[in-house]
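Researcher: First entry.
Model:
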Amino acid sequence: MQSQDYLFVREFVAFIASVLLKCCKQEDSSDMEIILGGVASISDEISWFKNEATVWGVDLASVSPLKANLEYHRFLRSFTEPEISYAVAVTTFWTIETVYQDSFGFCIQDGNKTPPELLGTCQRWGSAGFRQYCQSLQSIVDRCLANAPADAVQSAEEAFVRVLELEIGFWDMSSSRS
């Protein structure tokens, strides 16, 4: 059961809100439409996790975040700070989404030995539609970083690396659960 993933997604909603707040201050309003396109899927994700919890008999209200999840939560909450630029925030958003898409997309490629019980999950986040969404986010990131000052680019690079570190911790946590 992905109870830790559910807790992450709930925290991710607040992070996306912080990205949207920063986006509102940008001149290009098309970014907001793209980001909002992903928000609707987050609602579906939360419903999916709740349904899975019911199937597995897990009371999500009684689940507490584990250490790796708490570290990720702290990182995501840091983006509410006004001094973090939109370029850094949207880069972080793109990185998180792309890690999920690439990971689950790999699982559904021909020749991979993904257990049948995981195929539905892999197809959910490895889909062509989600890949296209991530590519749209990448276009936003590319544009933002091309116009960003050097310190913002460096901060975006640091955030990128930090997301990868947090993802490794999260996946390690997930794979160690019974």
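Researcher: Second entry.
Model:
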Amino acid sequence: MKAHRSKPKAKLGPISPRERLRRKGYGLLARGVRKAEIARQLHVAWQRVWEWEKRRKKLGPQSWRDIPQPGRPPKLVPKQRTRLEVILAKGAQAYGYPTELWTLKRVVQVLRKEWGVRYTPSGVWRMLRRMGFSSQVPMTLALERDVKGIRRWVRKVWPGIMEHAHRTKATVVFVDESGKQTTPNVRKSWAKKGETPVLRCSGSRKRLNIVGGVTLKGELHFATHRDNMGGTEAMWFLEQLLEDIRGKVLVIWDNGSIHKAPEVRTFAWLNRQRLELWRFPPYAPEYDPQETVWDVLKNDMMGNYCATDLDDLEETVTRNLRWLKRRPDVIRTAMRQSKLPLPEIAGGEAIAATA
């Protein structure tokens, strides 16, 4: 009788960037760190943290490692893959391409030029996925952006604002303006291969302007305008905040020109006993929690939405914002996606002293 031979286990290779990130997430989950905080610390979407938790419960605490699939050995050795990571991280222009765009075709060319190996585009796609890469839309940063100034603001000015708000018992409100057009924010959607989904929209493009503010508790205040936003509209929203919120109000917003309008300065001076205006560092939208709320509205809630006209658009935007207003938990989760280190939320109260 022949003895049964079990299949040899595939050997685990070097730890990939994706595995390192997952291991950190597992460690934080094991210590009981909140999922939103894990997402903020590791700069990942909160959905990925949920996937980690589900995988960890199902497969165990060591499941942060990828299980290699049996097959032909890879064409690149670990040292070459590390070198490829460096090339890709430096950018396509640094390698000699005219634009800052890595395509599968260009990576195929790099592999052939550097090591003489031949990959198909689909093979490159699978390899890059194993290496922890994904296809992403680049973030656009202004040339005028002062990185050191932004870091200094986060380290020194922001904690000072929180201490001042705690001392004066002021409500901190992050304010920002945005807009939504009748044309959709196009998002990927599932469909059968070869059957591209079609969005039937009006050819006319009209815009609805929105101004919103969120507090550390996740309370949302908003207003919509069909006309262009100016200093008068910004002043009206400040007045709305003072009517809706008791006590002192500390507004933090960007350096937009309407925030420096004479009407705004006059209103702030007349209400200086209750109102303070602070500014984010220039060209740093990723630190504004209100920006993440706009992302939820326009991409998650209204992705691929085609408005028939401006009335339809305003009605839909208002309905969705009212729903968000009733869900401070959703807003707080969205706010955690900003890079601003926010204080912990306990029982609905912001602990400003821990900022």
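Model: Note on the second entry: The first strand starts at residue 171 and ends at 181.
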